[in-house]
Amino acid sequence: MSRRALAATLFAAGLLAAGLLAAGLPTVSARAETLVFEPSAKRVEITSNFSGTTLTVYGTVERDAGTVGRGGGYEVAVMLVGPDRVAVTRRKDRVAGIWVNRDSRTYHAPSFYAVATTRPIAEMASPAILKAAQVGLASLILPESVPGGVEVMAGTASFRDAYLRLRAHEGLYAEYPSAVRKLGQHLWTVTLPIPAEMPVGRYRVRTVLFADGSLLAEQTSEVEVVKSGFEQEVADLATRHAWLYGLLAVVVALLTGWLGGVLFRRD
Amino acid sequence: MQLYLPIAEWPVNMFMIFGVGGAVGFISGMFGVGGGFLLTPLLVFYGISPAVAVASVSAQVAASSTSGALSYWRRRLIDWKLATFLLAGGMIGSAFGVEVFALLRRVGQLDLVIGACYVVFLGFVGIFMTWESIGTILAARRGVPPPPPKPRRHGMMQTLPFQVRFHRSRLVVSAIPVVALGLGIGFLGTLLGIGGGFMIVPALIYLLKVPANLVVGTSLVQMVVTMAFATFLQSATNHTVDIVLAFLLMIGGVIGAQFGAQIGQRLKGEQLRALLGLLILAVGIRFAIELVVTPADRYSISIPVGGGEK
Question: Does B280 score more than 60 pLDDT?
Answer without folding.
Answer: yes
